[in-house]
Design brief:
heterodimer; A: 420 residues; alpha/beta; TIM Barrel; two-stranded antiparallel sheet; 15 helices; 12 strands; 13% strand; globular; B: 80 residues; mainly alpha; 2 domains
Amino acid sequence: MQLSNARIIQNVPFLKGLARSVITGPIELVVIQATPFCNLDCSYCYLPDRDVKTTISDNTLEKILQRLDESGLLGETVSFVWHAGEPMVAGVEFYERVFTLISRRMPASTRVRHCFQTNGVLINPAWCALIRKWDVSVGISVDGPDFIHDRYRQTRNGKGTHAAVMAGIATLKRENIGFHTISVLTDDALDYADEMFHFFYGNEIRHCGFNIEEQERVNERTSLAGENTVERFRRFYKRFYELNRQHHYPLGVREFNNTLKAIKGWDRNQPDQYAHSQELTPYQIVSIDVNGDYSSYSPELLGENTNQYGRFCFGNVRTHSLVQAAATTRFKQVRADIQKGIRLCRNSCKYFSVCGGGSPSNKYYENGRFDSTDTIFCTLQRKVLVDLLLEELELSGGNEKQAIMNAAQSTAREYIGYGG
Amino acid sequence: MLTVVFASSASANTSHKADQEELFKRIENAQNTLETLEMESRPRQTDQYQVVQYYPPWYNWGNWNNWDNWPNYWNNWLNY
């Protein structure tokens, strides 16, 4: 029997540990671009090739699976997120074939979960059958009620897509398939906390998450860069929280739950033990585009032409193993700069131990470099939330039982995903 | 000049530490609130079998003589 290096690394605990300590991981999230094409044309989307109608080839997928397996970086569970383009454009048959391939090729020691982050307009009973068969986690991108959603999420003809998305959601409900939603918060949404809450509540959406409109790639400006955005953002979250409390916490809100967990898990003796983020750790996230080019850290960075590092890509699955890519100058430089950024955060930001060092992509696009600190993302998605929830806990004097129980019961499964 | 730079850096560091300590104290207070809540909402003894579904009654020593759970145990074991 011939043993490959990869198989030896996988099966000898010492070597597996060594590989992980040098290159880090374990790989928890693999973001695969099944196709860059999107059937919508949202105005804040950061992806540059939304018109390109190619689909990832079986050969590239085979190579991806080989590279993941041989890396020795796979853990007990890995999530495949199909995103970075509308995943459902590739069709049901494509995923039936691909999921079968993955189930055959992934090592038995690694449990695989699939997730679609989709705009939902193509969902029909055939998709529901596939989702049920493969136990796929579904994230729907919907920004709230139609007058907010339709402003940004439009077709190429400039028509709103809210009705089509809601039809997709209705199909999921009819088929009794659980899902979560991710909404992009823009400046326009901040004054409508009540309408947003009642949209989710009224449509019986149980799990929702909020992304902020980020200044990234082809979305060169964010509507959230205004002067009083922070205060308005704080008011939005506060009102949303109040409404959820008034209604006995029907909604699991990703941002509230994650912040509560960070507060709950914090330990003075090990203040930085939860200061960790997949985006800041090499190879915990692997992002792979339709051609097999791959990178790590923030998925949004893949393929970006940067001044410091050239094209943000560590290799191609056809030619470079993950371990080989980690030895390149580019990878080492990126890692060193991200580490430096984390150190700067640790030494200057009081929120570090409940954050971990922000997001590399936001640092890069807002500050022009990884070795930097404050971003809009930090302020809106970390500082505002920590302050708000501490305030609520202090003021409520302990009436937050249901919120805490909801947070404790929510599982990572509901929010496997990326983007929105 | 160098003294000024060091003094300024030391001052910033002191200020950062003070801010951090203030936040840490708030988090600890919040944790105390959370702990109280969890004590109150801890499941009753009989509820615990909902958590360790497929273990036999003697697995959880605190409940070893809770015979009410035998049917649950066998059902869950068969279904597992």
